[in-house]
Specification:
D-Maltodextrin-Binding Protein, domain 2; six-stranded mixed β-sheet; alpha/beta; five-stranded mixed β-sheet
């Protein structure tokens, strides 16, 4: 089977509504199809915070023709916030690759009197509880990033939850909140207005498209943001040679210059990790997120 694979189109389930993260899969879809020699068919199966689509692949035949394109929210956060998910994020899937990671940043209202992470921390320490940080909801990645930053910096900021990421940026540029932890793709278009300022990239390294913006680890060594990535998975018992074939095709597609350029322009890092690296990342992220869920007092429902 592995020698002849693939002999028919490959179905990729996206556990989110159409017009969401499937847009990121459509960027590499044509190149992947060209490399693998078969069509890649995207199928949106939204519902239950991604559980419906994820279960569909967890129960699919492990033959390499049914895959899951999902974010860490589905396979890391949801399992810790739901008591009765119909799948195990580690046991029921074969990792193929962590494909992409959004470049998240620390952004502040430009009217505030600090221009570096150190100045932000110094101000917050001198004015405990005065600064506010906005998130897209309790238990969201921007919320967890804010809590991690508070803990690492030894500061106190007031959390202001909103109903979605689209609400945060207008609140930040208007000055109704002071700090946020958005993706570069969200805040980027607003930087030219001069009403918002990016202090650092939430990652261990700088981002090539923001060469003058430091990494947060320059100020807080070892800082690790909340998990947020886009990965590809197969059902658990998928033969190893098929997983390797898929991995090679996805990585080659992502690294095609025209594909990589689209992602980097949109504020994404192209990762293309090995199956083993993604498996280890998932276990590590589950441990980190479990601690965050406990620390902010969230209860599985």
């Amino acid at each position: 089977m592995a020698q002849n694979y693939p002999v028919k189109p490959i179905r990729v389930v996206v556990p989110n509504p159409a017009g969401g993260i499937d847009a990121y899969a459509r960027i590499f879809q044509p190149k992947f199809a060209e490399i693998i020699g078969q069509q890649m068919l995207l199928e949106n199966r939204p519902g239950a915070s991604g559980a419906i689509g994820a279960e569909n692949i967890a129960r699919a035949a492990p033959d390499g023709y049914s895959l899951l394109f999902a974010t860490s929210a589905v396979l890391v956060t949801s399992p810790l916030l739901n008591k009765s998910l119909p799948y195990d994020p580690v046991k029921d899937f074969a990792p193929i690759s962590n494909l992409l990671e959004p470049v998240d940043v620390i952004a502040v209202n430009a009217a505030l009197p600090f221009k570096t992470v150190k100045e932000l921390i110094d101000f917050a320490r001198a004015n405990p509880g005065k600064l506010t940080f906005g998130s897209s909801g309790v238990g969201s990645v921007p919320h967890f990033d804010g809590e991690l930053f508070k803990g690492a910096a030894g500061i106190d900021m007031l959390h202001v939850p909103y109903k979605g990421i689209a609400q945060i940026i207008p609140e930040l540029v208007s000055g109704r909140i002071d700090v946020s932890f958005p993706g570069m793709g969200s805040i980027g278009p607003h930087l030219a207005s001069g009403k918002a300022r990016v202090l650092a990239v939430l990652g261990a390294t700088r981002f090539a498209r923001l060469p003058d913006v430091p990494s947060i680890t320059d100020t807080l060594p070892g800082f690790r943001p909340a998990p947020l990535w886009f990965g590809m998975f197969a059902p658990a018992a998928t033969p190893r040679p098929i997983v390797q074939r898929l991995h090679g095709a996805f990585v080659a597609a992502l690294n095609a210059p025209e594909v990589r350029a689209q992602y980097e322009t949109g504020g994404f890092r192209v990762i293309g990790s090995t199956p083993e690296e993604l498996g280890a990342r998932m276990k590590s992220d589950l441990e980190l997120t479990a601690g965050l869920v406990k620390a902010v007092g969230l209860k599985p429902e």
